[in-house]
Design a protein that fits this description.
With 138 residues, the protein is an alpha+beta fold. It contains 4 helices and 5 strands; from the N terminus they run E-H-E-E-H-E-E-H-H.
Length: 138
């Protein structure tokens, strides 16, 4: 089976509340499990960073649904590539809420990533976490 990994960032709606964030997480877990999509969603209070992986068609369809979701805007695909195996095989969607500070966020993310995640994927997560924290430009 061919797999695709896609990383994107987006800007959360300014008035997004905890209940909506929890609803996003619940829905993502349920729908992704049915569609064979796995990944991680990082939220720092203003931005989302998500890595999703699965069958190419399922990923493309999910991205189209995400583009129509009014709870965030400015979706920017940061990385898209075929992969041989999943980085997050046990997570239909894991939500990691982090601090806006990159240094705190990096530690928070590092503490949640599975030990089996390949170094290039960890590096991508850390680079993008730094980018959404505003310490580097996209």
């Amino acid at each position: 089976m061919s797999l695709k990994s896609l990383t994107y960032t987006s800007l959360a709606r300014l008035d997004l509340d905890v209940g909506e964030l929890e609803a996003i997480h619940r829905t993502a877990r349920a729908v992704n499990a049915l569609e064979g999509i796995t990944g991680i969603l990082i939220f720092n209070g203003t931005h989302f960073l998500q890595i999703i992986e699965g069958a190419p068609m399922a990923i493309d369809e999910l991205v189209e649904r995400l583009r129509r979701d009014p709870r965030h805007s400015g979706i920017e695909v940061r990385d898209e590539r075929p992969v041989k195996e999943r980085s997050f095989p046990d997570w239909s969607m894991e939500l990691v809420k982090v601090s806006a500070s990159y240094f705190d966020a990096k530690d928070e993310v590092a503490g949640r990533l599975p030990a089996t995640v390949a170094e290039p994927v960890k590096d991508r997560v850390f680079r993008m976490t730094e980018a959404i924290s505003g310490t580097v430009s996209f």
